């Protein structure tokens, strides 16, 4: 019996080893078949990757070139590059009564002090704004003759100015120093014009 068992061991162990090798061969062959089907997609992806690397290098060179050009420009260019003179003019004798108009940021009077961009205008001795073109005008200052205007530097934003009335104050922000000065001058000119037009005793009192 011992001799029989020893004789069976030789081919049984060899058979198990051969079965294991077949299983390994089948596993790797199936893996190769699966990846071989993905080979066209992998080649396409590799080509796209090469193009992305080239595009990224080109964009980097362009940005470095633009950055070098920007650094060479004078400071005055950044202050006035997007504003022409027509945008900062005001006219106290305008036929439609609108002395000046344009976008300004207005600081809310609530606890959050949020800033909202609104279309402001000076008309009929009043400072008004509206959210949209056809919205009803919201009056910020009812009579400019009772107000004063001053630039504000000690604030977290640039180009700010404040319109102060007897009952409240309104903090506004322009898009540039030139626009801020234009709005301040427009308010001051409107105040002076309103006094010239009707210097009655009521407002003097």
Automatic annotation (TrEMBL):
Membrane topology per record: Peripheral membrane protein
Description of activity control: GAP activity stimulated by phosphatidylinositol 4,5-bisphosphate (PIP2) and phosphatidic acid.
Record's GO cellular component terms: endosome membrane
One term of GO molecular function: GTPase activator activity
Keywords assigned: ANK repeat, Endosome, GTPase activation, Metal-binding, Repeat, Zinc, Zinc-finger
SUPFAM superfamilies named in the record: PH domain-like
Pfam families, sorted: BAR_3 (PF16746), PH (PF00169)
Stated role: GTPase-activating protein for the ADP ribosylation factor family.
Protein name in UniProt: Arf-GAP with coiled-coil, ANK repeat and PH domain-containing protein
């Amino acid at each position: 019996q011992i001799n029989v068992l020893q004789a069976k061991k030789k081919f049984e162990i060899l058979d198990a080893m051969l079965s294991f090798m077949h299983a390994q061969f089948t596993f790797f062959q199936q893996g190769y078949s699966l990846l071989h089907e993905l080979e066209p997609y992998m080649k396409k992806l590799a080509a796209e990757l090469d193009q992305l690397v080239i595009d990224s290098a080109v964009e980097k060179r362009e940005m470095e070139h633009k950055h070098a050009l920007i650094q060479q420009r004078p400071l005055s260019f950044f202050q006035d590059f997007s504003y022409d003179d027509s945008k900062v003019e005001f006219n106290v004798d305008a036929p439609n009564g609108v002395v000046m108009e344009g976008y300004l940021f207005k600081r809310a009077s609530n606890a959050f002090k949020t800033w909202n961009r609104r279309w402001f205008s000076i008309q009929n001795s009043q400072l008004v704004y509206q959210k949209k073109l056809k919205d009803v005008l919201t009056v910020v200052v009812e009579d400019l003759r009772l107000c004063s205007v001053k630039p504000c530097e000690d604030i977290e934003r640039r180009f700010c100015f404040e319109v102060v009335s007897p009952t409240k104050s309104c903090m506004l922000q322009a898009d540039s120093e030139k626009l801020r000065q234009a709005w301040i001058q427009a308010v001051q000119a409107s105040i002076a014009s309103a006094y010239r037009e009707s210097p009655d005793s009521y407002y003097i009192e």
